[in-house]
Amino acid sequence: MNIQRAEEIVQSPDLVNVTYNGEKIYIQHVDDQNQLARIYPLDNPQKEFDVQIEKLTEE
Question: What are the protein's UniProt keywords (predicted)?
């Protein structure tokens, strides 16, 4: 995924199907400068972490 698409997903009112390592996730925030996304698994909102945006996949 690219940074622009990740930002569009964050700003979208719709829930977009995005995965990280095969797990469905929610993107909370995009850090343009470091090309990172703050995410959490949909089934575990307490488990927040940062990942490289390029490793996210839109389903």
Answer: Sporulation
Q: E strands along 1-59, which residues?
A: 18-20, 23-31, 36-41, 49-52, 56-58
* Tally of structural domains, the chain: 1
pLDDT tens-digit readout, 2-17: 999 999 999 999 999 9
CB 37 within 8 A of CB 50: yes
pTM: 0.92
**Cα 12 to Cα 26: distance, rounded to the nearest angstrom:** 12
Token pair 């390592």 in the structure block, residue: 21
What CA–CA distances, in Å, run from 4 to 13, 43, 46, 52?
Answer: 16, 26, 26, 13
